[in-house]
Amino acid sequence: KAGVTQTPRYLIKTRGQQVTLSCSPISGHRSVSWYQQTPGQGLQFLFEYFSETQRNKGNFPGRFSGRQFSNSRSEMNVSTLELGDSALYLCASGVSGANVLTFGAGSRLTVL
Amino acid sequence: GQQLNQSPQSMFIQEGEDVSMNCTSSSIFNTWLWYKQDPGEGPVLLIALYKAGELTSNGRLTAQFGITRKDSFLNISASIPSDVGIYFCAGQSYNQGGKLIFGQGTELSVKP
To answer: Average of pLDDT values for A36-51?
Structure first.
């Protein structure tokens, strides 16, 4: 059974650019959550999607957005990148959300 | 962002020793989870706890859901070199879906 797949694994962007990250959940999982991991703030919840609807949102600015497609795949977008957006972005999937989450390996974003 | 209080932050132990780490929260959680993260990878679930007072084992790992629902601990017995990594606790509430609140992590180093 394939795990949670995140692409790309690594990327480098410059300030002001935007980035789109992709997440393919485990087959049958309808909930996809996104987390930001930094050395200073640790793991912080960004948002959760379930059946193409955003069900929960963390305390991040509007530059961070996401969406989920009918096949449960999800994307997150960060616009007008800032240096502080450099982080490991983790996607996690679950059967319904109120359940244990399985994480992907993450997309490491570096903003120069 | 909201975080759980996890301690200790780091541990340096000899192979064969037992390890204990814990998490406390000001909020009640319905589920406590323990994850391990290796460098360059996403967190991997070790143990999930669903009921106050529950004590669960997974091989050499044992975790307990505190009776007040505001704390949890993880014990590792007879540590081995492959136990090296960062251990995270996470709390989950039923009404918060896929949103996990994470501790800051405990970095474990094991000396052969």
So the answer is: 93
- pLDDT tens track for B27-78: 899 999 999 999 889 999 999 999 999 999 999 999 999 999 999 999 999 9
The total of other beta-carbon atoms located within 10 Å of residue B18's CB is 12
Cα separation, B88 vs B72, in Å, equals 11
- On whether the CB atoms of residues B3 and B99 are closer than 8 A, the answer is no
Nearest to A33 among B98, B103, B105 (CB): B98
Quote the CA–CA distance of B6 and B90 in Å, as a whole number: 10
Query: Is A1 strand, coil or helix?
Result: coil
Whether A6 and A73 have beta carbons less than 8 Å apart is answered as no
Q: Are B3 and B102 in contact (CB under 8 A)?
A: yes
**CB of A67 less than 8 A from some CB of B:** no
Query: CA of A17, closest CA in chain B: separation in Å?
Result: 25
